[in-house]
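Two proteins follow. First one:
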Amino acid sequence: MPIRILLADDHEVVREGFKSILERQGYEVVGEAPDGLEAVRLAEKLKPQLAILDLAMPLLNGIEATRQILRVSPQTKTILLTMYKENQYVLEALRAGVAGYVLKTKAAKDLVQAIRQVSKGIAYLSPEVSQTLVDVYRSGGEILSEPLTARERQVLQLVAEGKTTKEVASLLDVSVKTAETHRANLMKKLDIHETAGLVRYAIRTGLIHP
């Protein structure tokens, strides 16, 4: 039986390119998602063996999608595709439970190798990413901890994407009051008190693209 894979990227042409690569290698792409929330929904429904996720997706980025996918489909292993090799993204992804971290610039070369290793239970990092972590360790560099909860990060991303509180509540299936509370909490933690500041923070931390 071929390995069943879920693909998630907000660019259809990118999904089609990766789908073509995977199917030529004998893998079965069982679902495609244009955003993180849809990726979670499909993972819960389809229970794929692997989910290949873009890090910077709308509504829910790849790291947060990984956390939710592991809750609704624990047997699904995730591989992140990203342009970011900075240590804060890599470490946050590993904390979230990502099994593979592949740079998009090397994806055509590295993705199949990542799938092979992850399928065997072996974590895979693109070589440049591994070197980044080694450099941080050797230099004694500080790894900043994430001050926000997973739900607060999700709310932050939606706010930074321009969603109203009512839209955030609808997307997260919570009350408007709950959405307002999450927004107030994250603003207090970050000591940021205007939307423009939240957008800048979300861009700086990789939750959204500028």
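Second one, unrelated to the first:
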Amino acid sequence: MDATRLNGSVNDFMPAAFVVIPVLLAAALVWGVAVASRRLGEDRATQRRAVLTTIIGAAVWMGGTWLAAASGVLRRWNATPPPFVILIAGISVLSVAIAFTSYGRRLAVGLPLWVLVAVQGFRLPLELAMHEMYERGVMPVQMSYAGSNYDILTGITALVVGAIVRFGGHGRVLVAAWNVFGLALLLNIVTIAILSTPRFSYYGSDRLNEWVADPPYVWLPAVMVLAALAGHLVIFRALRSRPTRRSDPGAVSDPVGLERR
């Protein structure tokens, strides 16, 4: 395959990434809930209920946000309040609910710390896909790493920090520092994205963020931002909830072969 065809194939994949990555994140959440429930020793009925609730909840949320975008309701920028702002508020509330309820406790305590960190590596391919959208003229420059979005660093460092914690030790201070760093970069791009909507037009009328109001790109905020924000909050809870050393009382068993960190 020549270079031109190869580049074309890569570029054609980038829009599909806004479907592939969210679906993989949903699958990872289902897997994580199942593994965490098993490691915590929950009975089979509780395990099945947790997994089924996750599958139904993810399907309803992803389907509902897709339909809202397809109907055009999210493009009502002049409404008060704009439906897109309501979506952002819903993402924030859902992230907090996921992290700080018994649902989030299962993930925070039942999964190894390195897994919670490493999953945030999805932000690396996401940022590459977003940059492609900028180069195609779909997304404004300020939302890419060519502009003011540095979240690609979170994706890269998530893989590095996750590996350090998995193979080199607990790294609780490292994880805490990385988590603050990643959350700050996430809040930075979310703020930029909101200010770039037609309601605010902070960066000018020629640099508007309208594309995320359409499917499949609505899953960028509705699924991927949700996963990033909830993930950071779960990590904070994990750092507070688990013992400092594996020998401490309360350490969970590891029947599926994941080393607990």
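SUMMARY FIELD: Residues 5 and 131 are 20 Å apart (CA to CA). Confidence is low (pLDDT under 50) at residues 1-10, 245-251.
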